[in-house]
Write a structure and sequence with these properties.
The protein has 338 residues and is of the alpha+beta class. It has helices at 13-23, 30-52, 73-89, 223-233, 247-257, 276-289, 321-333, and strands at residues 60-64, 70-72, 92-97, 104-105, 114-122, 134-141, 160-168, 172-178, 183-189, 194-199, 210-212, 240-241, 260-263, 274-275, 293-295, 313-314, 316-319. It has 7 helices and 17 strands. It has an 8-stranded mixed beta sheet with strand order 4-3-5-6-7-8-9-10, with helices on both faces. It has a 5-stranded mixed beta sheet with strand order 12-11-13-17-15, sandwiched between helices. The protein binds 6-O-phosphono-alpha-D-fructofuranose. This is Fructose-1,6-bisphosphatase. It comes from Vermiconidia calcicola.
Length: 338
């Protein structure tokens, strides 16, 4: 009597992953171990991001990454933390990171059968402004005899066994999906130090009058993209525009509320800006598994696009099924199809 009603059945990420494993008879537990290492990386990065302003970790680190972006100290820390967690898991043979020009091969890991692509801190250019940033990741299973080379990553996102992203915002969110599986959202409970399942089996609204793109690029856009955007703005009930400039934040809102996120390839960025392996591919898998769709600037299903190089970029339209369909139909009117 009078006992505080406590929930003894909290579904933590740890418990979720263990229960996932029992669903697969053949599971060796390697994937579960890898996901626990991922979980630790997300907790660590969240910790450093939150302390950044306190101990002046933000600001430039004086180095720059593969694309010449000024690297912020947290970029470097995020990459080091993530790489260390993958190495210590003993289950990852090779890794691609936005912060490393070449693949990172983890030597003498006899049980390592996974390849992980990640952007440790996506949106980091917004860090000093307090905008939500996040980690985007995709996990490939390797053939048993794989050496662990960049060729292991030159595959379509349909090969991914899992993908997802975190968002270090007002709270720390994790969105995780397995191949052909549901999309599950977790929220970090700082008291418990655990991710808690708060958004089980996420399904996007089929349509929503919200568009998210950097219209500052519109003078460079191809005709179908310009027409698509103008039609939304001049609709009977005009669309709302929401653009944060941090992919994880724009993607998370689009996943929850519906709408469409677009970063088209254009005359300024003919190959697009966002990276196939650790931005477009993993996001496409999350959105498809949540009932949405994702295409590149040639209207090809994003999950079928194969990068030629590990840092290749692509245009992307990502969002509610019917909203992306509008872009596809507009391109069809112009005789451009996937
Ligand atoms: P723009 C952040 O720098 C990023 O890589 C993504 O997170 C974001 O969606 C995009 O670039 C923003 O690009 O050109 O609109 O500033």
């Amino acid at each position: 009597a009078g006992r505080e009603s406590i929930n003894t059945e909290i579904m933590t990420l740890t418990r979720f992953l263990n229960e996932e494993q029992t669903k697969h008879r053949e599971a060796t537990g390697d994937f579960t171990l890898l996901c626990h290492a991922l979980q630790f990386a997300f907790k660590s990065i969240a910790y450093y991001i939150r302390r950044a302003s306190l101990i002046n970790l933000s600001g430039l680190a004086g180095s720059s990454n593969t694309t010449g972006d000024e690297q912020k100290k947290l970029d470097v820390i995020g990459n080091d933390v993530f790489t260390a967690a993958m190495r210590s898991s003993g289950r990852v043979k090779v890794m691609v990171s936005e912060e490393d020009e070449e693949v990172v091969v983890f030597g003498n890991k006899p049980n390592a059968r996974y390849a992980v692509a990640c952007d440790p801190i996506d949106g980091s250019s917004n860090l000093d402004a307090g905008v939500s940033v996040g980690t985007i990741f995709g996990i490939f299973r390797l053939p048993d005899d794989a050496e662990g080379t960049k060729e292991d990553f030159l595959r379509p996102a349909t090969d991914l066994v899992a993908a997802g992203f975190t968002m270090y915002g007002a709270s720390t969110q994790l969105v995780l999906t397995m191949k052909d599986g549901p999309v599950n959202g977790f929220t970090m409970d700082n008291g418990l130090g655990e991710f808690i399942l708060t958004h089980p089996d996420m399904h996007m609204p089929k349509k929503r009058a919200i568009y998210s793109c950097n219209e500052g690029n519109s003078k460079y856009w191809e005709a179908p993209v310009k027409e698509w955007c103008e039609e939304m703005k001049n609709a009977e009930k005009p669309y709302s525009s929401r653009y944060i400039g941090s992919m994880v934040a724009d993607a998370y809102r689009t996943l929850l509320y519906g709408g469409i996120f677009a970063y088209p390839a254009d005359k300024k960025s003919p190959k697009g800006k966002l990276r196939i392996l650790y931005e477009c591919g993993p996001m496409a898998m999350v959105f498809e598994n949540a009932g949405g769709q994702a295409v590149d600037s040639k209207m090809r299903r994003m999950m079928t696009v194969v990068p030629e190089h590990i840092h290749d970029r692509s245009g992307i339209f990502l969002g509610s099924y019917e909203e992306v369909q509008k872009v596809i139909d507009k391109h069809k009117q112009h005789g451009l199809t996937g």
